[in-house]
Amino acid sequence: MVNIEILLRLEKEDDWREVELLTREAFWKKELIEKIGIGCDEHYLVHTLRKSPEFVPELDFVAEVNGRLVGNIIYSKAYVLLPDGSRHDVLNFGPLSVLPEFQKQGVGSALMRHSLKTAARLGYGAVIFFGHSSYYPRFGFKEAKDFNITTNKGKNYPAFMAMELIYGDLEGITGTYHESPLYNVNPDKAREYDALFPKK
Ligand SMILES: CC(C)(COP(=O)(O)OP(=O)(O)OC[C@H]1O[C@@H](n2cnc3c(N)ncnc32)[C@H](O)[C@@H]1OP(=O)(O)O)[C@@H](O)C(=O)NCCC(=O)NCCS
Fold first, then answer.
1. Closest atom of ligand 1 to CA, residue 133
2. 3-state SS of the chain?
3. How far is the CA of 85 from the centre of ligand 1 (A)?
């Protein structure tokens, strides 16, 4: 691994376009164009999440290398719905994006560790999300099943993970997980938004 100097800071409005461009580069998959008519929808998701009530601006970090934006992580508020109808608030994150030419150099890990540490310092109790099950356990994530939490459809699988930031925060919290409805991206709107970006 090449050693690079990574600067982490909060995202500013001036970064929005650049962050969406890098998110698009990070997630774009040619195979998806045939299926859904677009290589990814995560740049549109970032665009909509920032304006949503669930968005957590104090955890919206970018990574810079030599003055260039190369990564971003976005958090939003989510909750576990308990059998008695009450909600236990948690954090969700994603997308986490690193420009392809800067991947595998520690940028993703730096964004994860810094944002998790900041979230803990700000008093957030736990993080639950969907992601690569071979990447995130290194940060302390476990399957949500271990905490007796299921998806909103009552399912569990390795990509559905959770971690306590405050010890015991998920103790006795058994229920279904609910994230911002924006994660259910409208493909037509995503395609429309993508048309504003350089053609790939
Ligand atoms: C996943 C991602 C954020 C990781 O960031 P990164 O800066 O490349 O990661 P780091 O340099 O901190 O860590 C590198 C490690 O992550 C692993 N890794 C990278 N992408 C991975 C993936 N898709 N699945 C599993 N592991 C992955 C590498 O194999 C490497 O493992 P090693 O340390 O055992 O050698 C980045 O590759 C990315 O933006 N990918 C495309 C978008 C994406 O999939 N985002 C995450 C959605 S859950």
1. 25
2. CCCCCCEEEECCHHHHHHHHHHHHHHHCCHHHHHHHCCCCCHHHHHHHHCCCCCECHHHCEEEEECCEEEEEEEEEEEEEECCCCCEEEEEEEEEEEECHHHCCCCHHHHHHHHHHHHHHHCCCCEEEEECCCCCHHHHCCEEHHHHCEECCCCCCCCCEEEEECCCCCCCCCCEEEECCHHHCCCHHHHHHHHCCCCCC
3. 37
Give, using CA atoms, the residue closest to atom 20 of ligand 1: 135
Q: How far is the CA of 145 from the centre of ligand 1 (A)?
A: 23
What is the CATH topology of the domain spanning 7-194?
Aminopeptidase (3.40.630)
Quote the percentage of the chain above a pLDDT of 70: 99
Decide whether any atom of ligand 1 lies within 6 Å of the 29 Cβ.
no
pLDDT in tens, 68-82: 999 999 999 999 999
